[in-house]
Amino acid sequence: MKYIVMMNTMKAGQGVPAWPKKDLQAHIAFMRGINQELHEHGELVSAEGLSFPDQAKLVRAGKDGRAITDGVFPESKEFLAGFWIIDVDSPERAYEIAARISAAPGPGGVPLNMPIELRPVMSGPPKEMV
Amino acid sequence: MTTPWNATSEHLLRELAPQVLGMIARRFHDFAAAEDAVQEAMIAAFTQWPQQGVPENPRGWLIQVASRRMTDHVRSEIARRERETAVAAEAETLSRTLEIEADMDPDDTLILLFMCCHPALTPSSAIALTLRAVGGLTTGEIANAFLVPEATMAQRISRAKQSIKASGAPFRLPSPQERTERLPAVSHVLYLIFSEGYASSIGPQLQRLDLAREAIRLARGTKTLLPDSPEIAGLLALMLLTDARRAARTGPDEELIPLDKQDRTLWDRTEISEGIELLTAALSKASVGLYQIQAAIAAVHDEAERAEDTDWPQILALYDLLKQVAPSPMVTLNHAIAAAMVYGAAKGLQLLKALDTDPRLASHYRLDAVRAHLLEKTGDYEAAIKHYRIAATRTTSTPERNYLMTRASRLASD
Q1: B246-255, pLDDT tens digit by residue?
Q2: B199·A127 Cβ contact <8 A
Q3: How far is CA A46 from CA A49, A98, B144, B149, B258, in A?
Q4: How far are the Cα atoms of B8, B93, B120, B383 from residue B209, in angstroms, in the given order?
Q5: Is the dihedral of CA B23, B27, B32, B33 positive or negative?
Q6: What predicted TM-score, i.e. pTM, was given to this entire model?
Q7: Which residues of chain B does A45 touch, with a Cβ-Cβ cutoff of 8 Å?
Q8: Helix A21-40 vs helix A91-102: angle between axes, to the nearest 10 degrees?
């Protein structure tokens, strides 16, 4: 079963986190480790990190169907920092992975306990069931 | 001398894969490495044979390529060990193709099947390994069928082999008693391959490997190896009797068409008669099991020329039996549907109540979908709409969601 694991952490205008070098490196190493583990387990479908919110555009079609873009977003809004698509054997395994990501180390190595949104990915027709 | 590559060549190649793997694994005493070597030989064959023709002795060709890979592997292993421990070099034994080929064991494919469906493996890894080692498929094809990257699938297969190695399973046929114990796991893996394939066999996924066909091929092969197993015969019959309806189960826009609305002239008569023949033979043999009963239910549906001709009392009786042989909430659910067809929707709704407290099904979309359907039949449209919509939010299947939402909106606009 496939899930999307969404990491919603960034806030508009927040920019690059001003953590000590050691903590930042530990965070990056942690994320690489997660990707490596998911790959080794044969569970990784894809993983993408996203650019910072100040690069985001909101696009809407105008009356003539042409794109109208909007730049800066309200301060309070949370942004998707990145996502994984995983293919796992059970929902429990998906929860476990999401919890691990949630506890990624932040400043001082303290777990961030970020909110991770986990949603099943829709698939083809249902299986025949007896 | 070669013969031109044609429609049967691919089939031949896939049939040879487990035979060659059996011989190489036995000769070199290393299943994991042998499996990689045979995979490489398969890829080489798939690249070269369509252009250069099928060699005169295709099995010998595969053995030669695979054993060359194995020899390379053994050499590098020895070199590594020498570097690490400086032990004396082992006498290098370059195995001869003819020698290996003479060592063919007709049980090899069966040994592999039991090995790949080893209880130490998770279903997804057992499926992947079975398709590659027994089915002769390439990692790319398997990855494509499950819509995951090839590297991910390769990793899944490699981990599966590590688990088998760690479990210490020897490369030999399990004892008759072990075989009896482990046959259900083998059947289950084959059934999962089939249902995965049957579920995804529509629309834009058409170019994907047809897993339902592969499962039927594997079950057919298993049936040849275990001709007296009523379980395998029942499993193959179930697959054929289900697959027969494939062309009718979706419409032109990939929408799902329920059994009672299908164009039955599209059903595959050849598959139906083969399935019924297998089933009849299996039922005359032994005690009835899970797959024979399911196949029997599929057969009753397939034998009805029109939906209204369906022998529902017979289906209900079969579900009664299934409830005893292999009880599960899904069986109870289907039993309730059959009861509703025989005694009316109210009876079905009453039976569904027992499932509300079952944690395995309580929040499963199928329970709401069935309840909605029965409520619609009783004329309680408001409640039916509510449950169609609950079911639509719970399913993870896009065509099913579309179907359920459409049912609800159709009732709402009436």
Answers
A1: 999 888 887 8
A2: yes
A3: 10, 15, 14, 8, 34
A4: 17, 39, 27, 41
A5: negative
A6: 0.87
A7: 147-149, 152
A8: 170
